[in-house]
Amino acid sequence: MPKISLDMPSEIVHDLKSHVGDSKKFVSLADAIRTACRKMLDQLDEIDSRHGRI
User: 52 in a domain, yes or no?
Assistant: First the structure.
């Protein structure tokens, strides 16, 4: 799996970390970011489909 590096505002990182850990939605910060990217791509595919681009 390729690794990436990115700059992200600390407020977003802090908000994401509040959803990471035992008994929370994500097991790691990386898992939260991957999930968000997948959801965004699904939404973009849906928009493209509605506009006849797929």
Answer: yes
Residues constituting the chain: 54
pLDDT more than 90, % of the chain: 94
Q: What is the mean pLDDT of residues 29-51?
A: 96
Whole-angstrom distance, CA of residue 46 vs CA of residue 28: 27
Q: b vs e for 4-31, b when ≥16 Cβ sit within 10 Å of the residue's Cβ? A: eeeeeeeeeeeebeeeeeeeeebeeeee
Per-residue pLDDT, 54: 80
Q: Identify the domain containing residue 35 by its residue range.
A: 26-54
Number of domains into which the chain is organized = 1
Q: 49 in a domain, yes or no?
A: yes
